[in-house]
Amino acid sequence: MTGHAIDPATEAVLHSGVVAVLRASSAGRFAAIADVLVAEGVTAIEVTLTSAGALDAIAGLARDLAGDAVVGAGTVLDADAARACADAGARFLVAPALVPEVSAAGAAAGVPTYPGALTPTEVLAAHRGGAPVVKLFPGSAVGPGYVKDLRGPLPDVRIMPTGGIGLDDIGAWLGAGAVAVGLGGPLLGDAGSGGDLAALRERARRAVAAVRAARAA
What is the dihedral of CA 119, 70, 47, 118, to 10 degrees? Predict the structure, then answer.
């Protein structure tokens, strides 16, 4: 078993080390949030389809952040959604589970898909299905030691834990072998519903510093 080649979008995700998972009742504030995140070095943005206006947000962010960040779609659950996201400009697709039709639609559109998996069987199936990165979800259900254990028999699988990961946990996950982490609520806080963008900026700085420190260790 060997690792899959890294496409440019995935390379950008791995370079960021943090994927900011934007989820709110409405995507209306996502542009302002993304501007703060990218300015502080969080250059991988995932817009979840459970947010009202998500497709328009993906299109706007993909246009406005071109060259500065890579913008993808999250909570992609079927082929129609995958195609719509690709058409809107999403450069990667993320699912909470292994959904073959999403991976197939992404491949047809030339967009990498990061399926969700938890058990070793699911992780291996996602990898063998062509996923350049496998989203370990929910990360909070296991912990960093689980990544280290998985990487023993599956050293070529790129694992990105997501779900319930706090800012103070980033170093442990990357130290265990994760290639990046997905951060939702602990990074975004209440910014999606009108909260303080200055506080968001500080959290983004902490996240980027944690990635830098872990990779320098």
Answer: 0
Which backbone phi and psi does 187 adopt, to 5 degrees?
Answer: -90, -50
The C-alpha atoms of residue 72 and residue 112 are separated, in whole angstroms, by 10
Check: CB of residue 209 under 8 Å from CB of residue 168.
Answer: no
The sign of the CA dihedral 173, 174, 178, 181 is positive
163-168 mean pLDDT: 96
Q: Is the model's pLDDT at 46 over the cut of 70?
A: yes
CA triple 123-119-173, angle to 5 deg = 75
**Which candidate, 143, 175, 185, places its Cα nearest to that of 161?**
143
Q: What is the pLDDT of residue 4?
A: 83
Annotated catalytic residues are 46, 135
pLDDT at residue number 2? 67
Neighbours of 155 (CB within 10 A): 11
| CATH ID of 8-216, from 3.20.20.70, 3.50.50.60, 3.40.440.10, 3.60.15.10 | 3.20.20.70
Q: How far is the C-alpha of 61 from the C-alpha of 43, rounded, in Å? A: 12
Do residues 58 and 89 lie in contact, with contact meaning Cβ atoms separated by under 8 Å?
yes
pLDDT score, position 1: 59
Using one digit for the tens of pLDDT, what is the confidence trace for 88-146? 999 999 999 999 999 999 999 999 999 999 999 999 999 999 999 999 999 999 999 99
